[in-house]
Amino acid sequence: MYEEFVGVKPVEERHRFDVARLQAYLRGRLEDLRGPLVVEQFRGGQSNPTYRITAAGGRRYVLRRKPPGKLLPSAHAVEREYRVIAALHGAGFPVARPHLLCEDESVIGTAFYVMDYVEGRVLWDQSLPGASRAERRAIYDELNRTIALLHTLDPRALGLEDFGRPGHYIERQIARWTKQYRASETAPIAAMDRLIEWLPANIPPEAGSAVVHGDYRLDNTIFHATEPRILAVLDWELSTLGDPLADFAYHCLSWHIPPGKFRGIAGLPLDELGIPSEREYAAAYFRRTGRGEVDPSVWDYYLAYNLFRIAAILQGIARRVVDGTAASAHGAEAGARAPLMAELAWQQVEKILQRSR
């Protein structure tokens, strides 16, 4: 079911650009770049079109750009992606080596940046079919180690102290995604209306501030070809300074979503597979970050908030399908999942309400 996201394809007509113009721009800006360039488009991704650039001699790069056409405010911020990748690469965190950012839209039509192409494994199915029990456990432990490392980095030491506004992270995120959702509505979703009313009125105290990824999950990482080691974390479009617990809870949504529904593992025989339970996985994160356990209702709030955010993102994809700007041919299928995510979010809220009765 994930084959359609793997590998590269010829560049879609709507995402083509003048390769000769790009080559002229990159010559002298990238070491030893020799043409002609071969440009292919990655199959995965719903947001920013991403390309594999192969130069003469086989040297490969990745180019990531804003999509052409009408865009929602503050979306597709490749400039922010480049900034955070550059800062994290300098600190030794696993990201692709960044090379340059181009904000001159006359080159290929929109802003873009270029980074190294990292050879390795992108694992799409979170049940990790074909892996041994020990391999699965090691891969999940590496995922846990990496997000814990991110959340323990000092934004000031990274030069990212102004990468987001201090405080009120979830309040601002709810407002942002409510606005994005309203701008993207194609049909009413009753659960979203309830969430938009309830979530901002019930925000728990913040768990601090850190660099947060915003979309940290298995298929946004590149693993070493044979080792359970992350070589690069991908897709930093939603990164900012924010509540690390909210970021970690998003990563833990897999344990609450059924298989086949937005990369879930809920209901699978986890112990038999060698995949840790959510409780075990969270305990490892809390140990690595030095945080204490979280009240169950607070945890459920974070899960509800993140499911709401996914629903808003998926609704944005649905709108881009209507507008003709979706980066992936599978945008319609992804956008259709927005109501399910909203319903799952409201189920988490109902757990909180039941405890308070």
Describe the structure.
The chain is an alpha+beta fold and 357 residues long. The chain has two domains: 3-116, Phosphorylase Kinase, domain 1 (2-Layer Sandwich), CATH 3.30.200.20; 133-356, Aminoglycoside 3'-phosphotransferase, Chain: A, domain 2 (Alpha-Beta Complex). The chain contains twelve helices and ten strands. Strands 1-2-3-4-6-5 form a six-stranded antiparallel β-sheet, with helices on one face. The chain has a two-stranded antiparallel ribbon with strand order 7-10. The longest helix has 28 residues, at 296-323. The radius of gyration is 20 Å and the shape is globular.
How would you summarize this macromolecular structure in one to three sentences?
The protein is an alpha+beta fold and 357 residues long. It contains twelve helices and ten strands. A hairpin with a 5-residue loop joins strand 3 and strand 4.
The geometry reads as: globular
- Total number of helices: 12
Strand order of the largest sheet: 1-2-3-4-6-5
CATH superfamily of the largest domain: Aminoglycoside phosphotransferase (APH), C-terminal lobe
What's the CATH first level of the largest domain? Alpha Beta
Mean pLDDT: 90
The low-confidence runs, each spanning 5 or more residues with pLDDT under 50, are none
Radius of gyration: 20 Å
User: Quick one: how many beta strands?
Assistant: 10
Q: In which range does the helix fraction lie? A: 40-55%
Give the domain tally.
2
Structural class: alpha+beta
**Helix and strand string, N-terminal first?**
EHEEEHEEHHHHEEEEHHHHHH
Portion of residues in beta strands equals 5-15%
CATH architecture type of the largest domain: Alpha-Beta Complex
Largest sheet: 6 strands, antiparallel
Provide the CATH topology of the largest domain: Aminoglycoside 3'-phosphotransferase, Chain: A, domain 2
Q: Span from first to last CA?
A: 42 Å
